[in-house]
Design goal:
The structure is a homodimer of 126-residue chains. Chain A has helices spanning 23-35, 38-45, 49-62, 84-103, 105-112; strands spanning 9-15, 68-70, 80-82. Chain A is mainly alpha-helical and 126 residues long. In chain A, helix 1 (23-35) crosses helix 2 and helix 2 crosses helix 3 (49-62). Chains A and B meet through strand 1, helix 1, helix 3, helix 4 and helix 5 of A and strand 1, strand 2, helix 1, helix 3 and helix 4 of B.
């Protein structure tokens, strides 16, 4: 059983094959909201500024309106804010995530019993 | 509208930061079952043999019993089969996915209307 770990199995919900928004992007939007900039969010999430910027670009192009507005200010220098549209998208996403996760809660409990208790990986690919 | 896209939710089961099973690994198990080998599955999925092998290794170590049994046969030469345990895990995973998808079907329809109609991404990171 996996109860001895602080890392109980978690379920993440990915929406779509071309992933317009997923766990990582949603967390990035939250971090931009918290820190007020893409660079601050990148730092908080331990990713490069370039990667965060690319994720923001991809996200903005995925939806009918941008989720993030960045003010130009030189290399990593400008601020960024989450638009009303971005907040609305994020809320819808989080709501779907919770509902989907709740719908399979009993199954996840059973599934957790099949996981090796001491598994760790530095190859966190899907 | 994004109706032409597969926008069904997909699930990832994480243990800590490690992904025990997710969309890519599940598809890999299917491909191994179809092709009878890790190399065949890798080819079908357009990934390197090494990458497929690492994913299989990680998966096998994530669960209490291995999902894939490979017979050694030189570099990429041996066959591989999905164990009964592997089939059972995959079925549980797919069932959870279907149930989660059904639970947010109305919300997903609304969400799809917010996606840019021409969105495609070659940066399908989450």
């Amino acid at each position: 059983m996996a109860d001895s770990k602080n890392s109980n199995p978690r379920l993440r919900v990915l929406m779509g094959s071309a992933i317009a928004i997923g766990p990582g992007k949603a967390d990035l939007v939250d971090a931009i909201h918290r820190t007020g900039s893409i660079s601050g969010a990148a730092r908080e999430m331990g990713m490069s500024y370039r990667r965060a910027w690319l994720l923001v670009e991809a996200m903005n192009r995925s939806f009918i309106d941008p989720l993030i507005e960045a003010s130009t200010g030189g290399r990593g220098g400008g601020g960024a804010r989450v638009t009303d549209h971005g907040h609305a998208i994020l809320k819808r996403y989080r709501d779907m995530e919770s509902k989907a996760a709740a719908s399979v809660e009993p199954e996840m409990k059973e599934f957790a019993a099949l996981l090796a208790p001491d598994f760790t990986s530095d190859f966190p690919d899907d």
